Amino acid sequence: MPGKRVSMRKTREVLRLYFELKLRQRQIARSANVSQSTVHEYVERFRAAGLKWPLPAEMPESDLEEKLFPADPGVARPGAKTPPDFAYIHQELEGHKHTTLQLLWEEYRAAHEDGYGYSAAAYSSSWTGPRYVRFPLSASIWPSGHKPR
Prior knowledge:
This protein has helices at about 10-20, 25-30, 35-50, 60-70, 85-95, 100-110, 120-125, 125-130. The chain is an all-alpha fold. It is elongated.
């Protein structure tokens, strides 16, 4: 999962250190306080965008950001997983006594081979809502005479 992007000012600085000062990626990562993989990704994006160094001084940060990180909402990211229908999952778990998350996950996975694994289903409250999150219950937390359903 991608992390939060750094500011465009820092991105420009990373590119300057790489192209102008010819520093190695590890040195740039330490200097700019970013990971080495971030430096590598930004250099690759710069090259893929067909940009040349030095950048024009009048080029605004918004233009650079648009070229490095193009936003096309109509195109799905490569490797993006198909999200499940959370409303349907909730409805099935509430409405059918013997429906399990395992059964719903198997249906989902049969329809979406690129979908989430079972561990994401079993331990994520976004799948099932906070009511169904699994956690160990000890008898001592229940008041006397009360049992979980």
